[in-house]
């Protein structure tokens, strides 16, 4: 059984999304492998702070070209769509947890390239939005 202090610590981490923040920063660090990691992390935190204040996009591991490449792998016949199952698995693989279960095209089981890219970018942005103002 957890002590009150442990419960308070867990609540603090959850409230301020500290685990997600550290996870995102670690992923970015390993992805970019900067020569000066401390400066890189400071820059990322500054970008998160600016994006929170200005409502601009924060730092993200993936860009639209990366998402286009993922879609291309899932659509090797160039049909211009993927199945809902492919869409869902791709977003999970990208680390997106809060997936839109009813994207455009779900009823036909044909998720377009544009829908995939839009949903993925929005999900990635939500995932990277780990900075909270006091």
Can you walk through the features of this model?
This is EFCAB10 C-terminal EF-hand domain-containing protein. It comes from Eleginops maclovinus. Residues 65-125 form the EFCAB10 C-terminal EF-hand domain. This protein has 6 helices and 2 strands; from the N terminus they run ααααβαβα. The protein is mainly α. The protein folds into 2 domains: 4-54, cAMP-dependent Protein Kinase, Chain A (Up-down Bundle); 64-128, Orthogonal Bundle (Recoverin, domain 1). The two termini are 30 Å apart.
Low-confidence stretches: none
CATH architecture of the largest domain, by name, is Orthogonal Bundle
CATH topology of the largest domain: Recoverin, domain 1
Q: What's the number of helices?
A: 6
User: What is the strand content?
Assistant: under 5%
Strand order of the largest sheet: 1-2
Query: In angstroms, what separates the terminal alpha carbons?
Result: 30 Å
Structural domains: how many = 2
- The level of helicity is 55-70%
Task: Offer a concise description of the structure.
The protein is mainly alpha-helical and 134 residues long. Helix content is 61%, strand content 3%.
């Amino acid at each position: 059984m957890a002590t009150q202090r442990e419960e308070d610590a867990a609540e603090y981490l959850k409230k301020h999304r500290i685990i997600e923040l550290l996870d995102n920063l670690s992923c970015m660090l390993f992805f970019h492998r900067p020569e000066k990691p401390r400066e890189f992390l400071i820059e990322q935190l500054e970008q998160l702070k600016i994006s929170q204040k200005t409502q601009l996009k924060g730092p993200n591991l993936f860009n639209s070209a990366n998402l286009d490449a993922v879609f291309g792998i899932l659509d090797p016949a160039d049909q211009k769509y993927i199945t809902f199952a492919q869409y869902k698995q791709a977003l999970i693989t990208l680390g997106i947890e809060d997936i839109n279960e009813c994207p455009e095209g779900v009823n036909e089981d044909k998720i377009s390239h544009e829908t995939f890219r839009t949903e993925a970018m929005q999900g990635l942005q939500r995932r990277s939005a780990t900075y909270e103002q006091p």
